[in-house]
Amino acid sequence: MNVYDFDKTIYDGDSTAHFYLYCLKTQPATWKWLPYQAICAIPFGLKIMEKTKFKERFYKFITSINNIDKTVEEFWKIHKSGIKKWYLDTQKDDDVIISASPYFLLEPIIKELKIKNLMASNVDKYTGKYSGVNCHGKEKVRRFYEVYPDEEIDEFYSDSLSDTPLADISKKAFIVKGNNISNWPHNKNNLQ
């Protein structure tokens, strides 16, 4: 079983940021949330606001979207080309995607790619509120073992060292920078 992060790993960029910019272009009502988001960024930047709380406040912009399902569908029609070719060439039936991005945002593209296993942040697509915590760092490991208690990860791919907890439980781990894939730095399981 291979496990992949999504943003900047198998997708070229940050899907949440791309979706936000797409909404600013196509959903004018989302602009009203910009000052609120800027104000919320201050305590987060000063590390006095927890990441999940900040993201929940950031996602308030989705309350201004007319038809969230249609908007997400149209977004992926344009951004599907961001799925990296190297992933499409190596994709397997039992791949698992684990991402901090919202489940509602990734679900349509994951289904279209015929990937059966998705774990992501549980964000209400109508309110922006989280159910649980942001799917990040050690939380990814917890969720993996919750769903696959007896499975081992053969290969793990991510763009970020914040995913070291998943890399550490994988037989092999790889860091992805653009289309360059190399061994995870300092991973005890990667044998040369």
List the helices and strands and how they pair.
Elements: E1 2-4, H1 15-26, H2 34-45, H3 51-58, H4 68-79, H5 85-90, E2 96-102, H6 103-112, E3 117-121, H7 138-147, E4 153-158, H8 164-168, E5 170-177, E6 180-183
Parallel strand pairs: 1-2, 1-4, 2-3, 4-5
Antiparallel strand pairs: 5-6
Helix pairs in contact: 1-4, 2-3, 4-6
List keywords for this structure.
192 residues, alpha/beta, 6 strands
- Strand portion: 15-25%
How many distinct helices? 8
Q: What would you report as the Rg, rounded to the nearest angstrom?
A: 17 Å
Uncertain runs are none
What does the model show?
By secondary structure, the chain is α/β, with parallel strands linked by helices. It contains eight helices and six strands, in the order E-H-H-H-H-H-E-H-E-H-E-H-E-E. The protein has a six-stranded mixed beta sheet with strand order 3-2-1-4-5-6. The model has no long low-confidence stretch (mean pLDDT 94).
Give a quick precis of the structure.
The chain has helices at residues 15-26, 34-45, 51-58, 68-79, 85-90, 103-112, 138-147, 164-168, and strands at 2-4, 96-102, 117-121, 153-158, 170-177, 180-183. The protein has 192 residues and is an alpha/beta fold.
